[in-house]
Amino acid sequence: MPASLLPCVNCHGGDGRGKVEAGVTPPDIQWDTLTKPYPIARPGGRTSEPYTERTLIRAIAMGLDSSGNLLDRAMPRYRLSQRDASDLVAYLKILGSGLEPGVTASTIDVGVILPPPRAMGGTGAAIERALAAYFEELNDSGGIYNRRIAVRFADPSAPDGLARLRGDQVFAVAASFVAGVEDEVARLSTESGVPIVGAFTLDPRPDPGNRIFYADAGLPGQAESLAAFAARRRRDGRLVVVHSSAPVSQRAVESALRTARVSGWTAETMRMDSAGDAQSLATLGAADAVMFLSLDGSPVDFLRRVATASPRAALLVPGPLTSKEIFQLPASLTGRVFVAFSTLPSDRTTRAMNDYERMAATHGLPREGFTEQIAALSWARVLTEALQRAGHRLTREKLIAAIESLREFSTGLAPPITCTPSRRIGVTGAHVVTLDLKSAAGVPESVWIDPK
User: What is the DSSP letter of 246?
Assistant: First the structure.
């Protein structure tokens, strides 16, 4: 059979050492093991002589071991050209003999993409100090199997930008703010093979072709949660989604419409630039729920207009599109305004926050960018857990497999994180908060909605 039907890596593993597959334990096929200068005892009592290039090719093509015995029937017989056979032997001679890029006997190089100063002011510097403190303390406690984490921080707006995080320079990239550079980061992961462990953006784009694990579902995910929340409040109704032309707004619209319609609601869209005319206000006034997904304009001004046009519609807004100004809405709208957040302070455990406060005091961390610091630290903890699960013989494949094994993993700083081979978003749901505009309190009532 061709190797495309049953790749060697499925049974022998990325390092060639073999892993149990369907009750069969494949042998170690690293060259040093295959060519040991003495006979090897096999299960069942028989022995086999050291392999040569010729007998190894015979084993792969004909299913006979180095002594001419039939191999286990679980071992396929592969069709090989002479050139392919020579290439395969050359590869097996170096398999497992070297360390992964970004890994030495004493260090693991990890990259971090910071938000550019022009976008978030001093927040990037605050994140850098928090992560530097975290990894310094991790290294002081022994690191990861006695390897220290060496962190490289990158500003994507700088001249060298992401070039410092090429696949031959870092083992992985973690806890990174990739808004505005999603395409560049996707290329970095795809072309260099670098895992991105915790990417923060309003516009996540999960793709099996790259190795990016997103922190949360972004704007499309929050729109989906808000639509599911509206459907939970009442069995059927009419949803109007107001949007802008930005691609991420369009993707969020698609998520909201799909969820609403599957739930039995009718749903329609409206562009933000037309939401002020009389006909549009009449349409909004007849809605049971109005969702604001525009990256243009103020949600506060818009919601005021909608509240005037409709005395009953639920007003739905993703958290990233709001600010403290939302509490300037009339108190009469209390109980009608619902905001989605991927995380709330209630997700943070006392123990984790005590650890942060101690670290902040020890290292003089600023209060600026506190929320972003906490978010970055949560995925630094995910990276630490995955590195520990991957073991001392560290490879990117093992790291990815470790991340994909996380089920409801608690960092103590964010909602539990789950990843699988088909799920590259750590947190898929959102808290939907009912605003109390009378007392300007944000979280008197909230519910967790996960449409997945």
Answer: S
361-378 in b/e form (b: 16+ CB < 10 A) is eeeebeeebeebbbbbbb
Full DSSP string of 186-243? HHHHHHH---EEEEE-SS----TTS-EEEEE-HHHHHHHHHHHHHHHHSSS-EEEEEE
DSSP class of residue 113 equals: E
In this structure, what are the phi and psi dihedrals at residue 395, rounded to the nearest 5 degrees? -135, 160
Question: In terms of residues, how long is the chain?
Answer: 452
Q: Pull the structure tokens for residue 409.
A: 């993993």
How is 352-415 classified by DSSP, letter by letter?
A: HHHHHHHHHHHHT--STTHHHHHHHHHHHHHHHHHHHHH-SS--HHHHHHHHTT-SSB--SSSS
Contacts of 272 (CB under 8 A, 6+ apart): 242, 243, 244, 294, 296, 297, 302
134's CB contacts (< 8 A; 6+ apart) are: 359, 377, 380
Q: Does the pLDDT at position 132 exceed 80?
A: yes
Can you give the pLDDT at residue 97?
63
Give the integer Cα–Cα distance in Å for 177 and 128.
11
148 in Cβ contact with 107 (< 8 Å): yes
- Give the span between the Cα atoms of 194 and 184, in whole angstroms: 13
Sheet containing strand 212-216, strands side by side: 148-154, 107-113, 172-177, 196-200, 212-216, 425-427
Task: Supply the pTM of this predicted model.
Answer: 0.81
What does the pLDDT look like over 308-349, one tens digit per residue?
888 889 999 999 999 888 888 888 888 899 999 999 999 999
**Matching residue, tokens 């490289």:** 152
Question: Which one-letter amino acid corresponds to residue 263?
Answer: S
Burial of 217 per CB tally in 10 Å (0-12, 13-18, 19+): buried
Q: Return phi, psi of residue 403, to 5°.
A: -65, -40
- Give the number of other Cβ atoms within 10 Å of residue 445's Cβ: 12
Counts for the chain of helices (H) and strands (E), in that order: 14, 15
The domains found in the chain, sorted by start residue, are 9-94 (no CATH), 107-216+347-421 (3.40.50.2300), 219-341+431-449 (3.40.50.2300)
Q: Is 324 helix (H, G, I), strand (E, B) or coil?
A: helix
- Where is pLDDT greater, at 223 or 446? 223
